[in-house]
Write a structure and sequence with these properties.
Number of strands: 0
Helix content: over 70%
Radius of gyration: 16 Å
Largest sheet: none
Number of helices: 9
Length: 172
């Protein structure tokens, strides 16, 4: 909250969008879903204003995850449809790392029986493995892959194959 206030006070629009995304993540963790949706919508509006589709993909994926949780598959699909071209141009879109974006896109596409679901899953998994390959310490690499919930979920879905992880959720 304080970070958002500082960014607002100084007019740092990109920092505001980043803070709103982080705020939304915290709200999601606390199951404050309506508040999280508002934070993500505000972040997305700022990203659109700034023409920052790469950061905006993070907010869109979170909104798609919320829509999927609420049973609104058409809305989730519409959000994912807007994210896919961004991932095609910039595979590392998002605030910090793109794995929640890939996993959410996969889950939405799989729920809709979209034939592109497996390709998105494999792209996310390949990128996860690329990140992991840059960690030379075996213990740290294993921690990166297994102790970060979305990394673990993405990896498990990729290894189990399409269709087995449609209802998987993750918590950071």
């Amino acid at each position: 909250t304080r970070g958002l206030q500082i960014a607002q006070r100084y007019g740092w629009r990109q920092n505001q969008a980043q803070a709103l995304i982080l705020y939304g993540q915290a709200q999601m963790s606390l199951q404050l879903l309506a508040a999280a949706a508002t934070s993500y919508q505000q972040a997305l509006a700022l990203c659109q204003e700034l023409q920052d589709a790469y950061l905006g993909a993070e907010a869109q994926a979170a909104l798609a995850q919320l829509a999927l949780q609420q049973g609104d598959l058409p809305q989730a699909q519409a959000l994912v449809a807007a994210i896919l071209p961004v991932l095609a141009r910039h595979p590392q879109a998002g605030l910090d790392e793109p794995f929640a974006i890939y996993f959410t896109c996969y889950r939405v596409l799989a729920a809709a029986a979209d034939p592109h679901a497996d390709a998105i899953l494999q792209q996310g998994y390949a990128l996860l493995q690329q990140y992991a390959s840059q960690i030379f310490d075996d213990t740290l690499r294993r921690s990166f892959l297994e102790n970060v919930a979305v990394h673990r979920a993405l990896q498990q879905a990729a290894l189990k194959g399409l269709g087995n992880e449609q209802n998987t959720t993750y918590r950071s």
